[in-house]
Design a protein that fits this description.
It is a single chain. The protein is an alpha/beta fold. It has a domain of about 160 residues: Rossmann fold (3-Layer(aba) Sandwich). The protein has 7 helices and 10 strands. The protein has a 6-stranded mixed β-sheet with strand order 6-7-8-3-9-10, sandwiched between helices. Helix 3 packs parallel to helix 5. The longest helix has 18 residues. It binds adenosine-5'-triphosphate. Adenosine-5'-triphosphate (ATP) binds next to strand 2 and helix 1.
């Protein structure tokens, strides 16, 4: 069974059809890239996969469940298993919260926080993404962009996801730290068997990082591209 199976997805904003009959599937442990120019519908596809924006039509099967027809109450327990990582590393963390609270929050919301071992779990997650757990005391603005993106990934991992939807996860980062974050994502995938829907406009990064890539143009999949393997 694919981890994710998207069929004939359509996303509209009023008269604008941002995603037009897009279909693809993604296996557990696989990285599938969506590549294409600005405005071709990559982010809209990501939002619809995550059900953060309900599509006009089409189906999104995640771990065998069709999501588009589920009410929010039935989606809620599934949401932790599909986590977004967005382009702006600072945007996904509240500026008012310390990093350790941002990473602990999903555990608390999902009823998995335990005062005895919760702090150790947060430290373990920070360590797993290559951050010294002492950084947990800091606020997002006290971290570099790359460190902040790592903290965002730690927060996503706190939910024990199976799928990460990575929307331009390194595009806003200094070129010198991009490779480190991509290597971290590759290690996490090897260790945890995560599936990645990897949205990226940079073909060189896609070739290096993705197993398979789909090219989008004007809301449609225009062609498959060879990936790195
Ligand atoms: N909230 C919105 N309201 C109206 N139109 C939107 C909205 N979001 C996106 N669009 C339009 O939908 C189309 C697809 O946008 P989308 O952001 O999905 O593309 P993208 O490939 O991710 O581009 P970028 O890389 O610039 O984010 C564009 O024409 C865009 O202007």
């Amino acid at each position: 069974m694919p981890l994710l199976d998207v069929r004939d997805l359509v996303v509209r904003y009023g008269a604008v059809t941002a995603v037009d009959q897009v279909s693809f599937s993604l296996e557990p442990g696989e990285t599938l890239a969506l590549n294409g120019p600005s405005g071709c519908g990559k982010s809209s596809t990501a939002l619809a996969v995550l059900q953060l924006r309900r599509p006009e039509s089409g189906e999104v099967h995640f771990e065998g469940r069709e999501l588009t027809t589920l009410p929010e109450s039935d989606l809620r327990p599934l949401r932790p298993r599909m986590q977004p990582v967005f382009q702006d590393p600072y945007g996904s963390l509240s500026p008012r919260h310390r990093i350790r609270d941002a990473v602990a929050e999903p555990l608390k919301i999902q009823g998995r926080w335990n005062a005895d071992d919760g702090p150790a779990r947060v430290a373990e997650l920070l360590d797993r993404v290559g951050l010294d757990p002492a950084y947990g005391d800091r606020h997002p603005h006290e971290l570099s962009g790359g460190q902040c993106q790592r903290a965002g990934i730690a927060r996503a991992l706190a939910s024990d996801p199976r799928l990460l939807v990575l929307d331009e996860p390194v595009s806003a980062l200094d070129p010198s730290v991009r490779a480190g974050v991509l290597n971290l994502l590759a290690d996490l995938q090897d260790d945890l068997g995560l599936g990645y829907l990897f949205i990226c406009h940079d073909r060189a990064v896609v070739r290096h990082f993705a197993d398979r890539a789909l090219e989008m143009r004007a809301g449609r999949i225009s062609s498959p591209q060879p990936g790195s393997s």
